[in-house]
Amino acid sequence: MAIISKKKIPFRINGHLREYLEQYNREVALPIQYASLLRFDNAIPLYDKKGSDTFWETVFYSQADIEEVYLALKLIYADLKADGDMSVMKHLYVDRVDLCSYGNSKPFRVRIVNKVNDNFDYFYLKNADASRIYGLELEHILSPNRISYLTSGDTLVEEHIAGVPGDMFMKSYLQDPNLNAIRLCKEFVKFNERCFVRLLGDMHSSNFVVDITPDFEEVYYRIRSIDFDQQSYEGKKVVYMPQYFKQNNALIDLGFKYLTTESVLQYQKEERSLIAGRLRVEGGRIKDLMNVMIKDRISLPQHTEQLKQELAKHYRNSSFLNCVSMGDIVQKSLDLVTIH
């Protein structure tokens, strides 16, 4: 069973990582920083449609600040979605700003609404953490998903990743008569493999969403990470394998029912082959990222030592024992994908 007992330590973005972000157009000059959003006057609890507490608070700004803050947030949304083109923003307005005070990054969530048709979208402002940046970049490069995010000093801006939260999906969708259980189980195996290869931890049901796509005959699923704080930080191998989190047991049980050992191995090999293909396509970018990550400090020495020992045993590969940083371990794990 995977258990994370202590809160993760945040790590600042160093100069080399900042240069990487500038090179790949992630670093921009934003009109407002995360710290400025903390100057709200009041806050009230936010409840969902059923009246349950969401553990978010809606915050309110003074009349003197609100116009400036909301304009800045619209400009950030334009940077995130339209490369700064404000002409596409004229029908949009900021409807609400929420704060989640219990999360590691204490994110602000901004709700943007189109006043023409009431369609809405969200984006997030957070305290920038180097671990999360590496997690976002590895997701962008190695997964089938593309991630839109920006950094500016100590501020991180992220797009909203749409989907049904994993815990809600397991509670409400697993009994659906139209559930395609085999496709869902296959996707969970592939998701588990992606997380393990790139060492993204803490993927229990509250930290991923299920994207459901109806086709003309079947329903397709994609499981997407929404929390990247635990990118190669913990020392326990099982933390990087979603299959070991008890919160995911409903999906695990479904897999035992519908998948054979042979099919699981096949799906794992398929995913590793896809990751290898993405590594070849993005060879220059992943090399630049890993050159920075290998030299960065994004974990504790005892975690690095434990993880390299456990992976050396798991893969029966003593070369992991030569790793001196978490970046080294991630690089070795990716090397194994390309070798095989």
Labels describing this entry:
single chain, 340 residues, 3-stranded antiparallel β-sheet, 11 helices, 42% helix
Explain what you see.
The protein has helices at 15-23, 34-37, 63-82, 130-142, 166-172, 181-198, 249-258, 261-281, 283-295, 301-315, 326-339, and strands at 42-47, 53-60, 92-99, 108-114, 120-127, 149-152, 155-159, 164-165, 208-214, 219-225. It has a seven-stranded antiparallel sheet with strand order 1-2-3-4-5-7-6. A three-stranded antiparallel sheet has the order 8-9-10. The model has no long low-confidence stretch (mean pLDDT 93). The protein folds into two domains: 15-159, no CATH class; 164-339. Helix 6 crosses helix 7 (249-258) and helix 6 (181-198) crosses helix 8. The chain is 42% helix and 18% strand. The chain is an alpha+beta fold.
